[in-house]
Amino acid sequence: MNILAIETSCDDTSISILKDEKVSSLFTYSQIKEQNKYGGVIPEIASRIHSKNIFSLIEKTFENSSIELNDIDVIAVTEGPGLVNTLQVGITVAKTLSFMLNKPLVGVNHLNGHLFSSFIGEEYTTIPKKAGILIVSGGHTIIGLKNNLDIKILGETRDDSIGEAYDKVSKILNLGGYPGGPIIDDIYFRNKDNDEFKKQLDFPKINLPDYTFSFSGLKSWVMKTKKEESYSSEQIAFMFQKAAVFQIIKKINKLVEEYKIENLLIGGGVINNEYLREEIKKIKGIRSFMPKKIYSSDNAAMIGYAFYVQNSLKRKKELFNLRNLELDSKPKLKLGE
Ligand code: KG4
Ligand code: ZN
Fold this sequence. Notes:
337 residues, alpha/beta, five-stranded mixed β-sheet, binds 5'-O-[(R)-(carboxyoxy)(hydroxy)phosphoryl]adenosine, binds zinc ion
């Protein structure tokens, strides 16, 4: 089955062509350069840039694939969650192609894309049936359980997502703009063997009951600590990273203890964080599945792959609908829906 996948849920315009579960071609235009000026994503600007670039990106993706437009069997597009203006660009392009080429169209949940992203390139049968799940991205922080395609969310953030906290902290500390995650991670690794930094044990250890996360308190702590001027911006960023990762590790440990999970599926841009990856690898008794860097940030390959997985596990008729031209964006879609 040849799949054309389209992703425009936030600030990455991404197009991919897959032959079953194998990625034939993937191109992504990231708006970091444009959005950096504002320290975050401005939806109107994001949708204009998607609209400007999406067709040249589609052309390039086909040029680099042996699969031609007429050989496509299905078009898979992100329907949510995300920014309504930007989702609408991808959906409208997908509908137009579906209409003109008379090919089936399916909406794909962006979070399901992140969830299965560690397995891209592998057969869907290698995905563990039962597993713990963790999504850490710019829009979400979710922990839960998966049984086949059924998802049970155990906890989410009650305020900012972890990625949002990284981005806001980078802005507060004037570390060099958006996205903040890689900048703070880099500061951490440059200083982790520095004695001045190593002895800083007083980072905030937030650990809410159950599986609830909270990151906005950390942001306020960063603002307060900056005003007090007893630490440098780099030292505060270092402690923030320790505090953010501490919360995630606490909840994974709780999940392992309470539900005796053996596998953990992880997705989302924040799993690019080297310190978080290192700390997860130290957890005993579980096998963690983390995506390759190109598949951890927003990309269309994960959208095509998630469609393929869901289509393989469900009956085809449930997902395929040739005349799906009423498909609409679902900005608040939940993981697993
Ligand atoms: O999954 P993603 O590409 O987009 C959403 O669906 O939200 O995640 C983007 C987020 C940004 O907040 C960015 O700062 C964060 O992922 N991020 C990182 C790292 N690389 C990207 N956060 C921490 N450490 C990193 N190395
Ligand atoms: Zn995402």
